[in-house]
Known about the structure:
By secondary structure, the chain is mainly beta. The protein has helices at residues 135-144, 163-173, 187-196, and strands spanning 24-29, 32-36, 42-48, 51-58, 67-72, 75-80, 85-91, 102-104, 199-200, 209-213, 225-232, 238-246, 249-252, 256-257, 269-274. The protein has 2 domains: 6-104, N-terminal domain of TfIIb (Single Sheet); 135-274, Alpha-Beta Complex (endopeptidase fold (from Nostoc punctiforme)), CATH 3.90.1720.10.
Amino acid sequence: EDKPAGSQHIGMRKEIDSGFVLKTLSAVGQDRLIATTVDGKLLSYQIVGDAWRRSDLKTDGWSAFDQLVSPGAGFYYGRIPTTGAMYWYKDGNISDGSGADIAYHTSDPVDASGWTQQLLSAAPRTVSCKSVSTLGQDIANAANAEVGKTFTSYPFTYDYAWCAEFVKYIWAGEDVDYASQLDARAWSLYKYGTNHGTWKTGSPKVGDAVLYDKDGTLGDNEADHVNIVVGVSSDGTQIQTVGGNESHKVSKSGWFTWKTASDPVGAGRVMGFASPIG
């Protein structure tokens, strides 16, 4: 059928950057792309707001494919045009920026021939194969990797208050559902938790956002600070955190007893935790 006209016309174009000279390009998940180059590199791109990050997963070996598609969950399917063969690969963690955990199945292809279609495509995030979620630890690993960086390392807006932007940046980078609903207010993490049923005042988990407030209430639609839980003691009484805009940089705390600490990171006491959905 004809494309819709007027205001319904396909649009929403946004130029991310220039220089993407690639042989194949495909979506592998929310705000994540995978690509190959003519000389055989396998690359991944993470789009975070107006910024993007590139990771070189493999330096060679991927030049034979003319099409590369992914239905999500780290599955990659490549078609070789000369034979019509379709091969499949499994990336253990699409968020780690490494190709070391990609499993090759060259001796067990989808088919050795027959894939001669002109164009192939796959809908991302339609496959799931994790028996145990690693989301919380993936978030902690990503936050720990940022320790020491300053505001100038990020595409943030408010150089005097960027703790919530940092949490959003980490959560969005690990494909947390509804992360786009977060904003520059620490209180937006409380709203996220209450809207999606993940707000709690106890039982912290690695990957949670933890809110602090000096006046001891979140009912006034504000919180003084938010950071990320990166460690929980075996009895659940102590936590470690990583947060943005702590001493003007991304900082990691020591262990502290979250129930009784009056001011563990300089922003008041712990008010509760919002767990990510993914």
